[in-house]
Amino acid sequence: MTRPVGIVGAGLVGSGWAIVFARAGYPVRVFDSDARTMATFAERVRGNLEDLARYELIDSPDAVFERVEMVDTLEQAVGEADHVQESVFERTDVKQAIYRQIDEVVGADTVVGSSSSGIPASEFTDGLDHRENYLVVHPVNPPYLVPVVEIVPAPWTRAEAVERATTLMEAVGQVPVLVRREVAGFVLNRLQGALLREAWALYEEGYASLEDIDKTVSAGLGRRWSFMGPFETIDLNAPGGISDYAERLGGLYLDIARQRSDPQPWSRNLIARADAERRGALPKESLGERTKWRDRRLMALSAFMARSREAEGE
Amino acid sequence: MTRPVGIVGAGLVGSGWAIVFARAGYPVRVFDSDARTMATFAERVRGNLEDLARYELIDSPDAVFERVEMVDTLEQAVGEADHVQESVFERTDVKQAIYRQIDEVVGADTVVGSSSSGIPASEFTDGLDHRENYLVVHPVNPPYLVPVVEIVPAPWTRAEAVERATTLMEAVGQVPVLVRREVAGFVLNRLQGALLREAWALYEEGYASLEDIDKTVSAGLGRRWSFMGPFETIDLNAPGGISDYAERLGGLYLDIARQRSDPQPWSRNLIARADAERRGALPKESLGERTKWRDRRLMALSAFMARSREAEGE
């Protein structure tokens, strides 16, 4: 019999993870110390499962939901688990507190992944009995629509825990990537941050509007990047491949980087201008509706991607 | 009767443009001073049109191809044109030479866009009689599959030329973005360069493999960026929108940027390592086949995008 997956923290991220594991056939046990969060959890998961069925990404919402059990104590969630996924609020002291509790009730062979998007595991697992089984397993939101997961071991995480987390992610249809050593922002947010920094600078200096910078990505760069990464993109963009491309364009890119060698904070004035432009395009009260639109687009894209890979025999 | 569009330079980029204009119903006149390029032009365009029909992106390859006329002189291509799109080899002296020739035979009201991906128009149009009608109109390859076009006026380009180029791009189904002043790399390649620089650095420092960095984009960041830009992405990633996001994450991104404040050239050793990893994944002789795969994926994505926008009533 398959051992259950424990979910600790039943908010937006935890409920996304519950869907990922239950969709793949795993029994899931969910715990949150906040009663109100637990109360909204079931409703949120049910709504998301119905959306997924509408886009033919799952067959039966009921069959998936039946695998999800809400439990009353932390011990029930993690005690028999093969893997625990922690998704509590992202603040070091909050993470430290929950890991001290997990450490007391967890099995010696249970791997515990943290959904931390930026705090490395070494900052909240040091000194714990089972710290060699703890690491970061960072998803993108919502994880059942965007498959990448960053696996980031602490210096003391044992190799077997990394392997088991990686294997599990593959088994549930995610795309694990290994960040070999801890680094601020891991890989995903460092790449996003680098592009954002240039985008903010171009906007600040008046070269283009926010909307036009967004279009440059959504109608340009992002099309290729949705199915192949930046290195493969440039590998196919010069007759001799990536080394040919680097020879041709390395100089231009170095010049551009040198113009940006004194990074400054995004000023209040800059942020206020950007905020005004965005709120003109999308009023604050419409953010929730637009987020639902984004998720519908991601669902349609997921379904399309699955068909494309099938058509290509991948 | 619609005045024709002139295409100067019938290579990869010029043939892509011929498809964009002819697909939208415009008569197109194509000239290239190189007979071999002209000889391969027709075959390449026909092949691409057949691919587009297979993905239901056009109805009749013949009907589109009939609008494309190959002509024997530069004057025939540009003399009666409403818009000329120049796509000759990207080197300043080559651009200067062709613009001197264009300037002698072009009408006083014809707008001339250059497909230059990095050289600003001021470097090859200064001193010409009709320089106020010349500007950069930079596509992504292939333009009939990736719709963004950067419109970059020289300091002397008149506002009407910018407006006409923008209106024409919208009329033929492209997505024009305005780069208000000339800047090295324009917007698209500056954004790409910023992300690439961080990607190369993470690879060089051993944090992740090329393949895993690619997956972080293709299975992560690139999914959202294929239909919304980086600013809209962060606007939807914090409860209070973009200003809330900037408050929360500005500090992290500033720290990361400060770690990268001394940009160095990509070393020969680094490029050689990356080349070895890529050639292990994809042998050099397979680059052409993989490029065809990329174009098939882009075609399928274009068809999907059109359906999605329709479903959303956009």
Automatic annotation (TrEMBL), chains A, B:
Residues 5-181 form the 3-hydroxyacyl-CoA dehydrogenase NAD binding domain. It comes from Microbaculum marinum. Keywords: Oxidoreductase. Its EC number is 1.1.1.35. Residues 185-250 form the 3-hydroxyacyl-CoA dehydrogenase C-terminal domain. This is 3-hydroxyacyl-CoA dehydrogenase. One of its GO terms (molecular function) is (3S)-3-hydroxyacyl-CoA dehydrogenase (NAD+) activity. It comes from the Bacteria.
